[in-house]
Amino acid sequence: MSSKEAMLGRIRSALTDVTPMAPADDVAVEWTYGQRPPGASDDMLGLFVERVEDYKAVVSWVVPDEVPVRIANALADHDVTSAVVPAGAPAAWHEAVAAAGIAVVTDDPVLSHAELDATGGVVTASRVGIAETGTIVLDHAADQGRRALSLVPDVHVCVIGSDQVVSDVPEAVVRLQTSIDERLPLTWISGPSATSDIELSRVEGVHGPRILHVLLVNV
Amino acid sequence: MTAQPDTTKHERRTPAPPPVTLIGMPKFPKNAKKELANEQLRSNLRHATTTIRNKRARVVQELPHWEDLRLAGEAIKNRTLRHLDSYLLQLEQTLTANGAIVHWAADAAEANQIVIDITRSKGADEVVKVKSMATQEIDLNEALEEAGIAAWETDLAELIVQLGHDRPSHILVPAIHRNRSEVREIFLEEMGRYGTPPPEGLTDDPAMLAGAARVHLRNKFLRAKVAVSGANFAIAETGTLVVVESEGNGRMCLTLPETLISIVGIEKTLPTFADLEVFLQLLPRSSTAERMNPYTSMWSGVREGDGPQEVHVVLLDNGRTNVLADEVGRQALRCIRCSACLNICPVYERVGGHAYGSVYPGPIGAILTPQLRGIGSEVDQSLPYASSLCGACFEVCPVRINIPEVLVHLRNKVVESHGVTAEGLVMKGGSWVMAKGRNLALVQKGSKLAGRVWPGDVIGPIPIPGPAAGWTDARDLPKPPTQTFRDWWTKEHQQPEQTGESAS
Amino acid sequence: MSAPTGTVALFATCINDTLFPETPKAVVRLLERLGCRVDFPLQQTCCGQMFTNTGYFKEALPSVRNYVDTFEGYDYVVGPSGSCIGSVRDQHPMLAQRLGDHALQERVDAIVAKTYDLSEFLVDVLGVTDVGAYFPHTVTYHPTCHSVRVTKVGDRPYQLMKAVRGLTLLELPDADQCCGFGGTFSVKNSDVSVAMATDKMRNVLDTGAEYVVTGDNSCLMNIGGLLSREKAGVKPIHLAQILAQTEADYAATVEAEAVAR
């Protein structure tokens, strides 16, 4: 007998007290999915900014026309000399970064780990922002690039539209359902990487980008 | 029996953990006594647990619907467990459709062998690891070491533990028992032997220590061909695994190597992606006491051109089906390993994780370990008693595991597993006394009689299952009153013959 | 407030009956003063939790049966112990259910519904928080774990104490932390138990109160045992004994002490 059969057999004999019925009909879950939680803030964007900053990330409001130049400025502010810009990102982003004298690296052909490690920054779009938790979710579509791009470089400049920000996790999960249905990977980012492993004293920046700069586009 | 590898075969690749002898491991009170004597440990633990539980209370208070979330978490997990066979089959099907390779492992040995075989088939002699309780439970690192494969822990705390030839003492903060100067010593002593040494002038500043770990591990991340992870959740509907972390070491492992092997306890299954909205609210607030942890990764098998192109998922039993078979104890399988129960537990706070003799310490460990391993050994029999039943753990548990209820249930199992014991005789005597008011009144008449009824020490006429010294070494006993309440009442209110009670 | 029409059965608990008779005496005085008809059925013994909590379920059953037999005929059962009342409510149904004795289960459920901790009976049934008590002392209150987490007495003890004339309530730091008693835990894991009790004692001493108050004499025996050993001078007292004392009682006590001197 295979381990699969053995395990399933053990599970079934462990559950002899359970009345056979469709799983979905069993054990009522008193929960309405996808709802804006009670007491959610009216000033969703204000809360989003506050909560992202709470993680020691930088947040800047920008108007749509200024996005490319603000991206370049953000990279320059953090002394980035080379940055990955995903192939699917707007051409204006590529141009503005290059115009600022920062070497634009594309992932085509695919960058080696070493090449990526030698790159100082990365610019990505994003899929959803969550106000309550100060979270940005990437689904690694073409304007965000594969997962390693927004992980290995030390400075991550992330662009999010104000219309992409939702109140809390439930609304975010609803919006992300299509990404999951397409089997896109998701990365939920709440501030720069951090650890509290030494005496619970929080240190920002361990393995991921140590600097997260969010450009919140007023749309 | 020891978990030490046969070092005659080859040089060790990774730091050796302390020898462990599970059989014959002393029972909890003895371990606890030893740990209590360690002032540094107690001070580290007190600081850490107090900080984190206060922080948790603050972020939980922010959510007015916290109790509804807990109820939902409980209900979703119960539903999943009650139909675990269906959901696992669905998970296997969706994972396979997503290009992942699914393995079923009945026990630790089988799971370890699967990892060894895959790693060897890739021609690799090392793996990078995301912090995972399941891989600790099956002692994967030592199994790999014996097979000549180096397993590198990449979580900062796990790195401290590994380099320190130590064992984790907390589910979430495994090096909670170490302070910054101890960490510095460990890094100075060991880091250079296993890779990039720490920078010159390393101080005990946590930021500098974390920076040393970043540099030490970066090269390992970039060169590793195989990564090993656990998973916090596995979504049956979509074949998606979820890893919740803080440092980015998880993302490194899950993204950079060509091959990824995830060891997933079968109870980690969740029916749908939508269910995550409940658990991603419950888990970070309960564990790190944050509104959200820095990084959460979700992946559905293989994504062409992004991340590992060979994805394995090992579904692990290793005693979980035993837990599932216990109608009271199975609620322990709802556990999402947040460690809120450890941080709130007054017993854990004073003795730390090592006293529990298991990778799962604290209240959850006291109910999970004896169920996973069985109650054959002394330490496992003592774990259900490692609690004052104060109930604080149940109050903070995000999936409402009634830990005190399971503790008491397991105590009963321990009692039932024994034949006649001295304690059992004490309890039998007590049971007779408490069966009738007249019996109690008889025993109250004098401690001499009480001594005959209970073949052990007594506090007045109340029996003590164990030597009275356990109480009297540090605490006075109340002076027994000259008159019981019963006698007082009888004198005040009625004649004794009016009780109408027959002697038993 | 109105006195209930039925009879209130006092469940003294075995530990109070045997070791702390002043507590049930105080309950009788208090309830009678508030107009209740109080009875103490002599058949009563124990809630059985020392058996249940140590894993001896079979040995606990006689206590469960005896509790039902003893109190079935009464309108209310009131006990001065959050822990013992919690055991009746939480564990008696579990034990009856495990036994598979449906008749017993029904009887247990019925009696659980009319079993109250003293503070609940005063506040919820009698509807009173000012019981006319006088206690001119500083006190600090330890909310015992089972009273809070099993019986769920909430803030009732605080409501009652705030209405006591002369009483100054000092906040206990880390009040929600267990004192380390835990029944047989206190001897099976005596080292941890003493470590917990020591911290509780320190917190009690930090308040500078004259008295440490609880609604459970078992926990009070633990804290008090350590205070006594350390000759700390803080006196343990059960909440019922504070609530029972009137200004007249106090004057009489003071006079008696003066005469004795």
From TrEMBL, chain A:
Residues 123-217 form the LUD domain. InterPro entries: FTHF_cligase-like_sf, LUD_dom, NagB/RpiA_transferase-like. It comes from the Bacteria. This is Lactate utilization protein C. The lineage of its organism: Bacteria, Bacillati, Actinomycetota, Actinomycetes, Propionibacteriales. The gene is lutC.
UniProtKB/TrEMBL annotation, chain B:
It comes from the Bacteria. One of its GO terms (molecular function) is 4 iron, 4 sulfur cluster binding. Residues 90-316 form the LUD domain. Keywords: 4Fe-4S, Electron transport, Iron, Iron-sulfur, Metal-binding, Repeat, Transport. InterPro entries: 4Fe4S_Fe-S-bd (IPR017896), 4Fe4S_Fe_S_CS (IPR017900), FTHF_cligase-like_sf (IPR024185), Helical_ferredxn (IPR009051), LUD_dom (IPR003741), LutB/LldF (IPR004452), LutB_C (IPR024569), NagB/RpiA_transferase-like (IPR037171). It holds the Pfam family LUD_dom. Gene3D superfamilies: Alpha-helical ferredoxin, NagB/RpiA/CoA transferase-like. Coiled coil: none annotated. Residues 332-401 form the 4Fe-4S ferredoxin-type domain. The keyword Iron applies. Residues 417-493 form the Lactate utilization protein B C-terminal domain. Residues 469-504 are annotated as: Disordered. One of its GO terms (biological process) is lactate metabolic process. The keyword Transport applies. This is Component of an iron-sulfur oxidase. It comes from Micropruina glycogenica. The gene is lutB.
Automatic annotation (TrEMBL), chain C:
The keyword Iron-sulfur does not apply. The keyword Zinc does not apply. Keywords: Oxidoreductase. Its EC number is 1.8.98.-. Pfam families: CCG. GO terms for molecular function: oxidoreductase activity. InterPro entries: Cys_rich_dom (IPR004017). It is an enzyme of class 1 (oxidoreductase). Residues 8-87, 139-223 form the Cysteine-rich domain. GO terms for cellular component: cytosol. PANTHER family: LACTATE UTILIZATION PROTEIN A, UNCHARACTERIZED PROTEIN YKGE. This is Iron-sulfur oxidase component. The gene is lutA.
